[in-house]
């Protein structure tokens, strides 16, 4: 149950970032650095998913 809630919260956060970045504002060529903080017992498939999303975003 807690994993489902965490995944749902992460998806909501990702959607809010996606909608904010597509608001028609001009894009900057500056690099942006994001830091992810995981709860203590998060690992395995969820960590792999977040790492894959980040790798896909930064080709």
Q: Using the alpha-carbon principal axes, give the shape.
A: globular
Rg measurement, Å: 13 Å
As a percent range, the share of strand residues is under 5%
Portion of residues within helices: 55-70%
Protein structure class: mainly alpha
Model regions low in confidence, pLDDT < 50 over at least 5 residues? none
Mind describing the biggest β-sheet?
none
What pattern of helices and strands is seen along the backbone? HH
Describe it.
With 59 residues, the chain is mainly α. The protein is 56% helix and 0% strand. It is globular, with a radius of gyration of 13 Å.
In short:
This protein has 59 residues and is mainly alpha-helical. It has helices at residues 2-21, 45-57.
């Amino acid at each position: 149950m807690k994993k489902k809630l965490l995944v749902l919260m992460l998806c909501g956060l990702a959607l809010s970032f996606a909608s904010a970045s597509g608001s028609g504002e001009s894009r900057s060529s500056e690099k942006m650095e994001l830091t992810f903080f995981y709860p203590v017992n998060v690992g395995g498939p969820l960590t792999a998913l977040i790492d894959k999303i980040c790798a896909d975003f930064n080709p």
